[in-house]
Specification:
Layout: E1 2-5, H1 11-23, E2 27-32, E3 37-42, H2 47-54, E4 59-63, E5 83-85, E6 88-90, E7 96-100, H3 107-119, E8 124-126, H4 144-157, E9 161-164, H5 171-177, E10 180-183, H6 191-198, E11 204-207, H7 214-226, E12 232-236, H8 255-262, E13 267-269, H9 271-275, H10 281-291, E14 295-299, H11 317-333
Parallel strand pairs: 7-8, 7-14, 8-9, 9-10, 10-11, 11-12, 12-13, 13-14
Antiparallel strand pairs: 1-3, 1-4, 2-3, 5-6
Bound molecules: phosphoenolpyruvate and manganese (II) ion (MN).
Manganese (II) ion binds at residues 102, 273, 299, 309-310.
């Protein structure tokens, strides 16, 4: 249920409505908008209560059939969510570029890649220290050593770092190093992990599960917001379809405008995992920015052929810089900067 307060409602009046809602056994969340305050109530809806609240002079309207992803919805919060990670503003006018290798493979190679993507225009560094691999025999990541290398890269470049946390036991250690904690596609429905990250004082980037519907993905974000973490980024990274020969996943560009309509949260696109092929990264990045993406996450590797993970979907630094150059015009066309 959503309760829109009148634009002139004061704190006392808002508190009164919140108390009525709580007394009925609902949980209540407050959204302070530019024009008015909206209260989101979680609990079963009730026509009689709606009438009662609407009779109060400081209540504008009550909506019973609110979306299941109440707190991430535009109905609850009209203004886009904008927040800062270090000096980087997420969800604002600038399209934010996250780049770096799939996995941290070693100190020298990571620091080199970090410097290269910074020179190529990246705002945030990526890298996996805990890797979710299909094969138990594949490289699983350098774990804490990888996190330390990323932290060193942050010190050298001044860029914030984003890295994946794979399970609840590692939340503390990953959060100690990371500026943004990533939930991978395979963990998008790990509700215990989401609940814990909702209580964390760190931004969280939530990849779309490879077979997740838009609603399931938004519900994953709802777990984070319901626990109090409002700094959430959604990241489209392709979904499984019948195509497996020419692309690894099918990148759902339509998710970008859909998410923007349904939610106030920033939406990023990962064309590396979204396609599995480096040649498709530039065209899909252009499409993502044209569709209104707030940011891109791209895998970049100095020597993709030797990569321990996802080399086929990684750009070399030179191609990355070229791509960033080509994105500028599209960004401007849709009223963004790069
Ligand atoms: C990644 O970004 O490192 C990753 C494993 O992506 P995804 O969870 O989207 O597969
Ligand atoms: Mn990868």
């Amino acid at each position: 249920m959503l309760v829109n307060m009148n634009s002139g409602a004061n704190e006392e009046e808002i508190l009164e409505v919140e108390t009525w809602i709580k007394n009925l056994g609902y949980s209540v969340y407050r959204s302070i908008g530019e024009t008015n305050t909206i209260l989101g109530a979680i609990g079963s809806s009730n026509e009689e209560f709606k009438k009662f609240l609407e009779a109060l002079s400081f209540v504008e309207k009550v909506t019973l059939d609110s979306p299941p992803f109440l707190l991430v919805s535009r109905e609850f919060k009209k203004e886009k969510t904008v927040f800062k990670v270090g000096d980087v503003e997420i969800g604002g006018g600038k399209v934010i570029l996250i780049a770096g290798p799939c996995a941290v493979e070693g100190r020298e190679s990571y620091l080199q890649a970090a410097e290269a993507v910074k020179a190529g225009g990246a705002d945030i560094l990526r890298g996996g220290a805990y890797k979710p691999r299909t094969s138990p025999y594949a490289f699983q990541g350098l774990e804490e050593e990888g996190l330390k290398i990323m932290a060193e890269a942050r010190d050298i470049t001044g860029l914030p770092i984003v890295t994946e946390v794979m399970d609840q036991h590692n939340v503390e250690i990953v959060a100690r190093y990371a500026d943004i904690v990533q939930v991978g596609a395979r963990n998008m429905q790990n509700y215990k992990l989401l609940t814990e990250l909702g209580q964390l004082n760190k931004p969280v980037l939530v990849k779309r599960g490879m077979s997740a519907t838009i609603e399931e993905w938004l519900m994953a974000a709802e777990y984070l917001l319901s626990q109090g973490n409002k700094r959430v980024i959604l990241c489209e990274r392709g979904i499984r379809t019948f195509e497996t020969t020419y692309t690894r996943n099918t990148l759902d560009i339509s998710a970008v405008p859909i998410i923007k309509e349904l939610s106030h949260l920033p939406i990023f696109v990962d064309p590396s995992h979204g396609t599995g092929r480096w040649k498709l990264i530039a065209p899909m990045s252009l499409a993502a920015v044209a569709a209104g993406a707030d940011g891109l996450m791209v895998e970049v590797h100095n020597t993709p052929k030797e990569a321990l993970c996802d080399g086929s979907q990684s750009l070399i630094p030179e191609k990355y810089s070229q791509m960033v150059g080509s994105l500028k015009g599209v960004a401007e066309t849709v009223g963004r900067t790069l």
